[in-house]
Amino acid sequence: MIRLLVNLLEFVLNAFYRKRLYARFYVLETVARVPYFSFLSVLHLYESLGWWRKSDWLKVHFAEYWNELYHLLIAESLGGNKYWIDRFVAGSGVIIYYWILVFIYVVSPSSAYYFTQLVEEHVYHTYDTFLKEHEAELKTQPAPQVAINYYRDGDLYMFDEFQTSHQISERRPKIDNLYDVYVAIRDDEGEHIKTMLACQQPDAQLTFKSPHSPEAKPLPEKMINAINETAESIIEDTNADEVLMS
């Protein structure tokens, strides 16, 4: 079922947004935020009922949502939401995927995290292919102000919060032009993949903490190596032709 849902998303994007790239990014980023909405909803419910208090997980997932929000704002600043049909497609996807992911997260959090990992893999390769095919053009275009505000000039607390495979303040993207912006966005998606992999680890309940938590400790080296190896394998092995960007 999880693979079917991801394939459905990829089919819609490939069928209707093969050429209209910024509209594709708008729809993709609107839907990519949905799992984090779902995780936060269920976690808030559990906490309110006194069943499970995981404030660190709430912080990390909210930071992931916040990061995806700025990806969306960047796509909007480039005209991705110009047409009502694209807004309709994105909104319909939100309604469908939100409730499906709430159900999956209640039944099996690891399955929900795996779904999100697959979505983030698709997003990563979408941007990676875009960068390879349009590098020269993108380097001649200025970075949108919203990207400068988020990556360079803003409060980077929330940016650091989802970098669970890095120490705080270790990653600082260069934002000189539109190419740099999409390199940063692509690399963000790689970080989301790593975070989803960390959440699927058998001992995640004990080891997964907010990077800013007073109790935070670096993930065990063995876990970091396993996550990095898996992420690198995903990045190398996924066939970019599935994206069909050309």
Please tally the β strands and state the result: 0
Summarize the main sheet: none
Strand content: under 5%
| Low-confidence runs | 239-246
Q: What structural category arises from helix and sheet content?
A: mainly alpha
Radius of gyration: 17 Å
General description of the model:
There is one protein chain. The protein is mainly α. Helices cover 72% and strands 0% of the residues. It contains eleven helices and no strands. The radius of gyration is 17 Å and the shape is globular. The model is unreliable at 239-246 (pLDDT under 50).
Topology record:
Elements: H1 2-16, H2 21-32, H3 34-48, H4 55-77, H5 84-107, H6 109-139, H7 145-153, H8 157-161, H9 178-199, H10 204-207, H11 221-237
Helix pairs in contact: 1-6, 2-4, 2-5, 3-4, 3-5, 5-6, 6-9, 9-11
What's the gist of this structure?
This protein starts with a helix and ends in a 9-residue tail after the last helix.
Describe the structure using short key phrases.
246 residues; mainly alpha
